Amino acid sequence: MPEPVKYRHDLDGLRGIAIAFVVIFHVFVGKVSGGVDVFLLLSGYFFLGSQLRYAYNPGALLNPWWPLWRTIRRLVPALIVVLLSTVIAISLLTPELKQSDIGDQLLASLGYFQNWELIWQGQSYGAASASISPLQHLWSMSVQGQFYIMAIVFALLIALLNRKRTHNVRIVAGIPLVIATAASMFYAFTASDSHVNYYSTWSRMWELTLGAVLLLFCSNLRLPTWLRHTIVILGLIMVLSTGLLFDGATQFPGPAALYPLGGAALIILGGNGKGWLGSAPMRYLGRIAYPLYLWHWPMLIVLTAYLNQERPEVWLGIVVIIASLALAHITHIWIEVPFQQHARRPAVGDKRIRQGFRSIFSTTGSLRGLAAIIIATLCSTAFLIPQEWAKEVEALSNYRLDPRVYPGAMALEGARVPQAEPKPDPYLLAETVGLAWTKGCMSWANQNPNELPYDKKPKDCTFGDKDAEVTAYLVGGSHAEQWMAALDTLGKEHHFKVIPFVRQSCPAFVEELDGVFSQSCQQFNSVVMERIAEDQPDFVVSNSTRPLLELNRFIDEVPASYPTFWEYLERLDIPFVGLRDNPWFILPGGKGKKVSQCYDKTGDMIECGKPENEFYAADNPADEYLVNDNQINIDTSQWLCEDGFCPPVIGNIYVYRDGNHLSDDYVRSAAPLLWEAMAPLMKELNLA
């Protein structure tokens, strides 16, 4: 049986100071402090230790429900309150954060798989800013929750082994934990993808199991007093200095994580439950550590976005810390403590279920039952919110603006522009994608490049006049796909069908000559080229220019790879329609600027737009390439800019859905202009 261990109040204080430093570094420094790593270590120390002690109880009950229920009562109510408070704050203050990926993260946080959701979304851990998810920090709660389930199962297996004969805990439990720790360490220390490594349960596991290993093998070491004091001070210095010495977002949980965890281990080895860390203020900080961690990040992000600060200013950080401490205290007193399971864990023969059922009819039991119903209702509400956000976006995708009030691109041709608020909703607009993308006809960058979405559902992925004899292929990346809204409209009006063979971040080419496009993109293009040669469509539409941001070239040009595609079409005698690219609005650091949201917040055309010469070359770079009779070279810059400036709103319509893609509504408004530009080819096809 595990040796009895005196409760360590100093470790409560260590937990409190670890989370306090997480908050401070999040708010003022914008770096990872290592406090979460220490928090995970202590979670393994306390939780798995308690599970193993119960497993060696002769009357241990082999029912996983009890420890799971106890854990749910301790963690979930506070989490639900914070999540719903965050959703309400987003709805009232920062509608730009009503995004589908944040909705998915809400569900992932409730289901304790937020760390994996962030991996699937490709979300690297970032410093606090107006564009970061307010639920990003809950990855660690998910890792912790997943570990708790595994710890419960592991301890029950140990209890099962001890049914007939008690085994040495350091052999039966300790050796598997040492092996698991070593395996997870190896995985984390050798990982090549720091983004996945940071969030992965398997790379974080060693930080948790190490806590249990320290409990089993080191909890009763006898050290001289002077040595204990020395290593505790050294350990505390290591824990507190981590954020100043390491970039935890890229280095943890790799070898660098040994520094803060080594410091925490020294405190575990040398502490005796007393001292500064065991003082009343530090123990209190440890008690509110969990709700403090829950509250501080969403409050910081929502207020930063609401106040239009790119990074939180010092005064805002101070306000957030004070408010987070107050909310953590309230949450601890009114939610955590009342919901905690204070009774001892049941043993074989206990009639806890029957007693619990009877207690419902007491005053205290009825109040707890009512509170449980409220929490369950709140949880159900949280599950429905992402669906409502998705419905709003879908409704926007199906909505059509009145061209008499919202002439869009036709305003540049002299159409009257009445006084009206720009549309559509710029915050929902940021969540929309192009028409083919919406229908699932766009190949994602992480999908099999040998598969064409059209082949799986040809009916859904045929646009324009589905029964027409004339066929157009739309090929390339998302900047080609964004013109589907106009092509679909024109196809229905003039009787040609449009079939998309498009892939995210993958322009059309036969040979990659720029050294910037992925191997999967090259493979996808080879499949598309074979399909074009086999099907012989009546004409093909794609982009003719692009900025090579990957090479720090921000003016539109013809990448060396593009003409290989045009020459290929020429050899096949297939007409080509080339569309000059639209402006890209890129913020320092590489993120796209939310152009439409910028204008909604500031009303400033200049601040939210872009001078034409900051993106467009003086002449259309494709002019010297697309010179044959069956090649239509369209300069779309004249539909997006006027008098040397590219504004965020034209003809009462928001031009951009994000920082570099056109909105469907604006593209539709440009359909007559696109048809006019394509007229020579359309006459040859007897469509005009």
Automatic annotation (TrEMBL):
Record lineage: Bacteria, Bacillati, Actinomycetota, Actinomycetes, Mycobacteriales
GO molecular function, one term: acyltransferase activity, transferring groups other than amino-acyl groups
Pfam family, one: Acyl_transf_3
Boundaries of every SGNH domain copy: 457-674
Cellular component terms (Gene Ontology): membrane
Organism encoding this protein: Corynebacterium gerontici
Annotated EC: 2.3.1.-
Protein known as: O-acetyltransferase OatA
Gene, per the UniProt record: oatA2
Transmembrane segments: 12-29, 35-54, 75-94, 145-162, 169-189, 201-219, 226-246, 258-277, 289-308, 314-335, 367-385
Biological process according to GO: lipopolysaccharide biosynthetic process
Residue span(s) of domain Acyltransferase: 9-328
Keyword set includes Transit peptide: no
Keywords attached to this entry: Acyltransferase, Membrane, Transferase, Transmembrane, Transmembrane helix
InterPro entries: Acyl_transf_3_dom, Acyltransferase_3, SGNH
